[in-house]
Amino acid sequence: MQATRQQILDYLRQHARATVKDLDAHLSLTSTGVRQHLTVLEREGLVEAHEERGHVGRPALVYRLTEQGDALYPKAYDQLAITLLEEVRAGGGAQLQSLVRRAATRFAEPYRERVASRPLPERVREATEIIRERGFLADCRQDGDGWLIEQYTCPFPRVAKQNSCVCALDVEFVRQLVGEDARLSTSLLRGDHACTFRVRPAQPAAARRA
Hints:
The chain has 210 residues and is an alpha+beta fold. The chain contains eleven helices and six strands. It has a four-stranded antiparallel sheet with strand order 3-4-6-5, with helices on one face.
């Protein structure tokens, strides 16, 4: 990041908003120079401008960080998640499994109406689309009497390296979306090309006891 643009981002992160005049004074630059840097940052999706009307005169352009701009600043979410999982794990495996199931249920809840009452092939395709909407690369294909959903990016890469139990969260999320048996057959964490969820129609209870 060019030094002056980083200073602009830092100022916006600290003050939440700024006009060109504010940045002129902070950076000791001309208004033209500040606008040139802001134009680049807007084009990169890091800042956005809104008109703000004062008591008199024309509305002023006020600049703020976008979500993408704010994301440049480190967050401790991964470390928090790792620490919480370690604390839950210390309470016993059953407690951890219960936490994973409840978290997957919360993740799946907003999508239940989209997959309800559909045949399995449609549920698999819709589940794959939901994974994509959540920001991850994925596709699906039929495999014998079942289906494969391949997810090429991990939702929790740093956390998974410390606590692989989050992989079970992903499997449970897929299982709840498709409403059938889902198993993890390949894993990015193990060095495979994708996390592959093998989906098969759930067997009736009588068949499982046989």
